[in-house]
Amino acid sequence: MSAFHFYKYQGTGNDFVIMDNRNGEYDQLTEQQVNRLCDRRFGIGADGLMLLNKREGYDFAMKYYNADGRESSMCGNGGRCLVAFARKMGLNQEKLNFIAIDGPHEATLKGDDWVNLKMQDVDGVEMGSLYYYLNTGSPHFVKFVDNVQSMDVFNEGRQIRYNDRFAKEGTNVNFVQPTTEGIFVRTYERGVEDETYSCGTGVTAAALMSAGSEEKEYVVPVQTLGGALEVRFTKTGERSYKNIWLCGPATLVFEGNITLP
Question: Active site located where (predicted)?
């Protein structure tokens, strides 16, 4: 039997199991255990699992697993939740610097649960006739639609994620509709293989693609099924973006212990 002490966090409904692994006690987590812990019927229930690790030269390191149990690419809302968790674990610096699978990040906190997370610069976007494809720490397919609230995101997203081009590596699929204030985004996530309430790297990709042609600073309010986020960035060229910040709430849901066979 394996016993785990865990915390559950959520950022606009994107929810995560988090463990403090700074002493290495969860280094031996298996794919099956992660999958079970994230299971909504037989485990804690989450879109992913994260470990707060130690890393020389950084305040901490982020290790992220999808709900299917496999280590995955960067998760924006996960990163924000892990920053809030790091603060709870006593890392009280005004600015936190951490390393994730896609490289270094910095983050600041406002109040108890508002996290501003700096994302990697984006340089290069594939533009199709009806879509954009780019990497914001994870690969994202972005499609603008007129009826985002009534869409069958599960089936339409799955169709794109499993088409010939993406089937092997997978992609996340975002459906985006402009609103009077900003954009509304719904996302099908690989690794979860379903729609999630929110996806940080997806929201970031959608916000970048909603920018006009002008090279300047943008602030894009984003609505998701799980709540409101904000993406700030500077467009520096036709397909290049810098100083990208994903901003939004990250809150503790509960803390507990679980034993797995």
Answer: 75 (proton donor), 199 (proton acceptor)
